[in-house]
């Protein structure tokens, strides 16, 4: 059964395959463009560079890591089954005004070949206790108004629609079981 975990070098090959599946339109979700550094798909072929990516991702979550003023610390988790990279989820530790309008606390992507299996719902559900430990309750999630699959994922996790802004639906999802 797939689990959400800290990034690991064990899924190196599968991560690159997923990047190829996502293509240029969605490659930003792969994490090659982190908050601190940026990598190309070709650079991440190198196992040493891939290990540096994983360290950079870990650094993004640490409060002592200095970030540009317009960015926030985030915890990035990968959804993995064995050595297969299935998806990525990021929990932003706090919201800037733009994130409050459009981005929210949690964003996720499932690789195209793994879509339609309920993985996004599993990822989001597994991430809620992590968000709670970060002091986030409830979590803001957003999706495009025409993204019915994502809307269903958010609602399945208990998301309550607040409103629509700038073509995005804004939901609040409880992270603690009350």
UniProtKB/TrEMBL annotation:
Top-level taxon of origin: Bacteria
InterPro entries xref list: Acyl_CoA_acyltransferase, GNAT_dom
Domain N-acetyltransferase, chain residue ranges per copy: 34-178
Protein name as annotated: GNAT family N-acetyltransferase
């Amino acid at each position: 059964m797939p689990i959400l975990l800290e990034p690991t070098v064990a899924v190196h090959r599968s991560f690159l395959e997923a990047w190829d599946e996502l293509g240029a339109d969605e490659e930003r979700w792969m994490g090659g463009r982190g908050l601190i550094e940026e990598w190309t798909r070709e650079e991440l072929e190198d196992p040493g560079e891939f290990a540096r990516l994983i360290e950079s991702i870990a650094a993004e979550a640490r409060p002592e890591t200095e970030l540009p003023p317009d960015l926030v610390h985030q915890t990035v988790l990968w959804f993995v089954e064995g050595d297969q990279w299935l998806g990525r989820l990021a929990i932003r530790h706090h919201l800037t005004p733009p994130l409050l309008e459009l981005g929210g606390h949690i964003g996720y992507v499932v690789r195209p070949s793994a879509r339609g299996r309920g993985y996004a719902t599993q990822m989001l559900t597994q991430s809620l206790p992590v968000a709670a430990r970060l002091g986030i309750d409830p979590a803001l999630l957003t999706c495009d108004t025409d993204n019915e699959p994502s809307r269903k994922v958010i609602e399945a996790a208990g998301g309550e629609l607040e409103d629509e802004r700038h073509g995005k639906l804004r939901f609040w999802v409880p992270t603690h079981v009350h």
